[in-house]
């Protein structure tokens, strides 16, 4: 039983589509080694990266057509993960098969379902069609995080941290000072933070040339277990929708192991979409902000790991984060129960000392 | 239950007073992260270095007056460790509080009590007033040790190792050849070793200009759990007290974790107290000697950790060390019992094959 | 109970004879620190490298005649591992003794028996007298491997991997394509692979100047728990024995810890025995091949450690490897039972889906 369980049943970002080609690539997803590549018809494929023979990584093998030949003893594995032959004998070993993960290429993303394939329904993939919308442009990438995934989930579901951790870029006092409305529904947690008539934080001043006060919207949607989408609107105060600058951010928070996480991101905008210099600036800025988060979360991981039983204090701005955390715990518990296991005690959280604000589900 | 329990109830050296100021400093003490700093009135303060909100280190926050603002979400923590406000809401979260450690600044040392505050009595701090006596001068510092604390305790309580580990500085054959008298009383273990009419070891020859045979006294006091004081007298043989050179050494043996230790030291003398060059020499020499100990103890840690059950052979010169070790085991066991835990089996030691010398308590 | 038990009762290679002299050397063998050196009569000696007093490595001490003086507190340990004196008191501590391992110098090898000395019989040391036969010459050395020993055993007992892992040196298609005969008897597993009228692999072309097709024999003998000997014959097809080139390889697969292994090797030949340039080439080539194995096995170790319960698929060419693995498991289990322990569940292996070839014991 894991002390820090990972939710297996869910669509995670496994890779950016432009990372996956005819070169075999190993990436650990939810504690399992995955071999990513494209079949000869161009479709993406993801199989367990352990040869069924002696567990050597298939990603170190040779891809020819749709068949990988393992580089240790030559087992030949087709796109379904089945062994279709060996060099040592004419007959194919029976039942030699590695797991093929449900994988879907959509919106420039390779989505992967690490859990029970029977439950994988591509209709459940969140709509991020703006990534391929011609009226939008975006930058994207990923960073590695040596911290458990839930800490990243909570980081994104409570953006008040921008005020303190990112004051030189996207944070200022208005973020922490503005309450959120939170709506939870099924495997989704949403929050709405509308900051009206505030000073623009440094990043927006420089990237948008804003000089007046602005209205800034931060509307976030967490699709448990691993996707977070942030809808941003920045406009001089008083501007009516749909005028103003719009941005969207997707984070793919994919556990690599119980204590490490892939942090995929894309940052899109609907303005100056042909401005390559701005894109370059935004990518650089985004990576700088994420470095501040990564540094903080890796320290937080150490503090959590060395006192797993500490009861945390919470306030109203934590409502979305706590819901996200509890959702993950609930999902992990249900999966463990379905496997006949008993889950670990959830990370303790002290209920907010004050009543939650009205308007929450 | 820890395999290598740490005694929590005791005054340890947390820092040298000159290390602590208005810049927040994290240091792990007995397995707990501590944030050291000075309040606006100049007094030292030590609080748990985990924000009560999401455990982020407070030492990464901003100190203004007596309040630290956490750099993750802005919890404001006063000198008592209590949250006195947040930026996210007007009302202060109730019950949000981190532990404040009993801390006392005395003799240029910041003393800390990692355990139950109710049992902390500053009167129990050993008298090392020579550190601030105008007739004395001293050098001080600290080194990190990747070994469990008890190995350092035993190292200091059995100075026969000087003969073998430090032959080029403070050791020669006389140390190992001269028996000790040992007295144990309460939480203190003392030994007396008087070497009469012996050759001076290299360090004393060079630092004191001694050319004749000497009398050398090594009188040690271990104040469990973490303080060791050595009283040294060096004098040409036949010189009567109080003539001769006197030196005092304090070691603060403070567990950082179960297998790492802070090794604080100060080396004082009552002669040539204005000789800055001598002070510089003594500091350099002391650090060289301690490096020999650190190297040896880190290797010993590996040998102990890989065979925790080995029964050790002991001789009469081990009497002080064994008493020190047993005292720590007894204290840890009592603390565990008070917490309702069961302690680990103590590290086995074979009784000395020969009777202990007379004159011991 | 170890998850990956080590067989203790067996003659392992502890060192090459030319590694052991009057300088004390520490090497971990089967989870125990061993101090290797030569006594004053030139004979090799191997004792537990933990002082019976406070476990400090004796290998850091001073050897004078046949006595090591520990560098921490001066225990004097003779060649039998017994303490024969201390500097601190006139009487010798009773019962202070470290383990002396049965050790034999033979064929230029220091053989060591890590387990029960009563069971150690030098007659059980495999005959590798070709290492000291004047009609042969050899190169030798060792490499470190961060993988459990059994993975190296299986690597050597299934040479079909040469086809895939070593195609630029000793492997080509013929190796995987040629079935083996396997004979198991007592603590020995042997296989015979005779490749007739095949193209020579690159290594043999270059080192022997072979241009025609060849017959290549690979006859392997695994002497459990830790010795593997390979008998090689290379000759232009049709050449009758005893004509042709003969080579012999010994691998000493000595566990250092449960997950690290010493990989000793010697590569001998009966041709051009005075050709120093060829020896140099063969040593370089051998180390290059072993680097390919080490890299692969260290990756395999990770894949095994992260999914210890995976059931592996097997084929007929695995028969020797599986027998070797089971032999080790059986020996470890018997040793554990003799110690009154329960062993870990063996690493699962799926039976070959097709019947084993005839002719096997």
From TrEMBL, chains A, B, C:
Source species: Geodermatophilus ruber
Cleaved signal peptide residues: none
Matching Pfam families: Rieske (PF00355), VanA_C (PF19112)
Domain Rieske: 11-112
Chain positions covered by the region annotation Disordered: 336-361
Keywords in alphabetical order: 2Fe-2S, Iron, Iron-sulfur, Metal-binding, Methyltransferase, Oxidoreductase, Transferase
One of the GO biological process terms: methylation
PROSITE patterns documented for this protein: RIESKE
Lineage: superkingdom: Bacteria
UniProt-recorded name of the protein: Vanillate demethylase subunit A
Molecular functions (GO terms): 2 iron, 2 sulfur cluster binding; metal ion binding; methyltransferase activity; monooxygenase activity; oxidoreductase activity, acting on paired donors, with incorporation or reduction of molecular oxygen
InterPro entries reported in the protein's UniProt record: Cholesterol_7-desaturase (IPR050584), Rieske_2Fe-2S (IPR017941), Rieske_2Fe-2S_sf (IPR036922), VanA_C_cat (IPR044043)
PANTHER family per the UniProt record, alphabetical: 3-KETOSTEROID-9-ALPHA-MONOOXYGENASE, OXYGENASE COMPONENT, IRON-SULFUR DOMAIN CONTAINING PROTEIN
């Amino acid at each position: 039983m894991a002390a820090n369980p990972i939710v297996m049943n869910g669509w995670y970002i496994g890779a950016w589509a432009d990372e996956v080609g005819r070169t075999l690539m190993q990436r650990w997803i939810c504690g399992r080694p995955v071999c990513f590549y494209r079949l000869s018809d161009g479709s993406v494929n993801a199989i367990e990266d352990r040869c069924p023979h002696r567990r050597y990584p298939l990603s170190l093998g040779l891809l020819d057509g749709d068949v990988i030949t393992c580089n240790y003893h030559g087992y030949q594995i087709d796109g379904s993960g089945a062994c279709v032959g060996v060099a040592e004998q004419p007959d194919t070993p029976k039942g030699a098969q590695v797991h093929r993960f449900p994988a879907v290429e959509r919106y420039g993303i390779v989505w992967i379902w690490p859990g029970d394939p029977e439950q994988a329904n591509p209709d459940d993939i969140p709509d991020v069609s703006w990534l391929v919308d011609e009226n939008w442009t975006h930058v994207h990438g990923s960073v590695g995080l040596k911290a458990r995934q839930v800490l990243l989930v909570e980081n994104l579901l409570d953006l008040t941290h921008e005020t303190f951790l990112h004051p030189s870029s996207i944070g200022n006092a208005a973020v922490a000072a503005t309450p959120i409305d939170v709506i939870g529904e099924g495997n989704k947690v949403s929050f709405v933070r509308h900051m009206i008539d505030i000073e623009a934080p440094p990043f927006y001043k420089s990237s948008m040339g804003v000089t007046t006060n602005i209205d800034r919207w931060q509307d976030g949607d967490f699709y448990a277990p691993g996707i977070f989408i942030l809808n941003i609107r920045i406009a001089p105060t008083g501007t009516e929708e749909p005028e103003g600058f719009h941005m969207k951010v997707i984070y793919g928070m994919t556990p690599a192991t119980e204590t490490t996480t892939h942090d995929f991101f894309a940052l899109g905008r609907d303005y100056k979409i042909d401005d390559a210099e701005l894109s370059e600036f935004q990518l650089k800025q985004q990576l700088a902000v994420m470095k501040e988060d990564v540094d903080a979360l890796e320290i937080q991981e150490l503090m959590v790991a060395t006192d797993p039983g500490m009861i945390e204090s919470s306030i109203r701005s934590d409502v979305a984060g706590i819901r996200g955390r509890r959702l993950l715990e609930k999902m992990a518990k249900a999966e463990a129960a379905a496997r006949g296991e008993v889950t670990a005690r959830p990370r303790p959280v002290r209920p907010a000392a004050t009543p939650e604000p009205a308007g929450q589900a």
